[in-house]
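Protein record
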Amino acid sequence: MAEDKKQKLWGGRFTGETDPLMHLYNASLPYDYKMYKADLQGTKVYTAGLQKIGLLTEEELDQIHKGLKIIEKEWSSGEFKRHPTDEDIHTANERRLGEIIGRGISGKVHTGRSRNDQVATDMRIYCRDLLTETVLPALAKFIEVILLRAKEEIDVLMPGYTHLQRAQPIRWSHWLSMYATYFTEDYKRLQQITDRLNMSPLGAGALAGHPYGIDREYLAKNLGFNGVIGNSLAAVSDRDFVVEIMFWSSLFMNHVSRFSEDLIIYSTAEFGFVKLSDAYSTGSSLMPQKKNPDSLELLRGKSGRVFGELSGFLMSLKSIPSTYNKDMQEDKEPLFDCLTTVEHSILIATGVVSTLNIVKEKMEGALTMDMLATDLADYLVRKGVPFRETHHISGECVALAEKTQVTGIDQLTLEQFQKIDDRFSSDVFKVFNFEQSVERRTATGGTAKSAVLKQLASLESQLN
């Protein structure tokens, strides 16, 4: 047991044994092992910084770096053997380094460094690399798939909805462009967060700073950071970047959930606008005819999981005194799960969009002439009638069509139109054309073909 105490980075002060349950309660290696590469990278640069100020010889540094390389291979191949005393990834790596090169040299790697600035550094490297190398490219691909679909299916019309009631005709591509806009804003927001978190805490020590005057700017530059966090207290205690990533994840998953909800509705037999591929659907254990949109329902459901992780961590963080406190260990599990959930959700959503089929006939068949009531009001506006008046007149036309039980307002006679308002003339029937309705909306952001194509081009340029 005495040997076990020596393995602990903090063991010298303590003479009593740790409760085995406390060891399990305290340990974070089961989940923070994910940061092994970031931890080894941080140690590699940190020890180079120690050598730069004369606390390590070149020969010692060389042995350390060779040992770190061996450890990285062990982790990546799955051959790394964990020890019962390994509390966390930092303890595990340093313990293994001592086994490889001897504790006389490995014992120097932590000179002037605390696990407080070490873990903060590891987390920032891990998050930066995962976001830039995995999440952002996957999100860009998702948006590109939506944009490609929108360009290919630009001529398809469908009802646009407010309050889930048919409102005005739009292009299917206009609907796709709406979500591409949301997701592109998410993409840009994540870029900003990634840039903001890319600051180095390394060299801040436990809280008060480095006692040997290490070159923090050198450490930051060689770890790919944009600079250093200027206050050592803030450097070790700041977890705002974790909160920001979780905030971003919650907002992104909110958009994914709404996107999924629309497609779930559109895939019902009552709508029949889209059909999901078999790859992203499941059946019923009882009803053979069922084809359930489980992929979309899971996307919608997992948004709640991400929201919960954010609120849970905020509750852990809200009353922590300065600077580092063990409560902060609660940042990793929700953060890692958040990032994994988001990454998998992006991949599933991309698969759904790239493989679903639209039913053009159903979409266009759902268009009804009452959806052109605003166009009827606009017809009179073009004749100089104030819109507030034309809105009322158009409403009377809709009411008359319902009262006379014709199939639509386009079935009213010219005489019936003129009885409501004598400013109607024979050209009123030109209003009742869905294609012309969408094509009138050419202003930026509208549903005319030219306007939608401009939206898609703008979104593409923002990604590039």
